[in-house]
User: What shape does this take?
Amino acid sequence: MSANIPFIAVAQAAVRQGLSAEIKATLHQPVIIVSAPRSGSNLLFELLSKIPGFWSIGGESHVIYHAFPHLRAENTNLDSMSLDESHADAETRRLMRACFVCLLHDHRGARYVDMLPERRPPSVTLLEKTPRNALNIPFLLRLFPHARFIYLHREHRQNIASIIEAWKLGLESGRFVTLQDLPGWDRRNWCFLLPPGWRAMIGKSLAEIAAFQWSASNNAILDSLTTLPASQWVSLTYSDLIESPRDTLTGLCEFVDIEAPKQVVPDGPLPLSRTALTPPHPEKWKKYESELLDLWPRLAETVQRIESASVASKVNQS
Assistant: This one.
């Protein structure tokens, strides 16, 4: 475990003091956003984290995952970034929960650990969003058995085109890079999450890599969520968020039992998220139409799965 990350020492001390039960109760029912890369999850996270009742660590939990060497990848062979129940041993669960609490703050930025003990709420709604969580739902359910999930998905042509653009930028600038010098990989860096079967992408085009990541992410999410009770997850489209933000966000708040004042839920045109490259437009994907044309038939089954899940578990927009 990395000793140069200050919150780790605090988390270890909390566990040694026997506070594991209190920490677990504090994070009883977190809300976890899962999606393929470039689906709009940063925008959704940024919007929800400003609503009273949601707590977060202020961004993605890479820093927490990286504090645990055995959580950086599925195994030492780097076969994927997928994590399952076997990665969530008792000590990992205790320490990882404590790490979240150490970094936790409310919508105003007030840190949980800085509050007087008598002023701290006995439980909070942790909002978590990290792209690799698409591959980690079995692990997350071991860590947080009562977690609720928001499954965000975006029209496949738009989503895959956005992944292509981000890969191009990542290979040029280092942005979006998650792994450097990946053994056996034929490019300098790997961007975004690493699904099982990634080695089949050696020598492939960026369009094929992007389609692979999109399909692998969505299928992994659906494989896990469709085994859960309907009350534990909800499906949401990126277009719903963009076109009807107030109704969509209000529906999500109702799903997680948060009463959000209407005046704090945004409506109308939304700001760009901090990771947006260009303003969204439904026809931007046509820039890559010729590269993607042969890939569409291979993705048809995944598209159908997503559409079916969307109908079965769509956020209530009243």
In short: The first strand starts at residue 31 and ends at 34. The chain has one domain: 6-312.
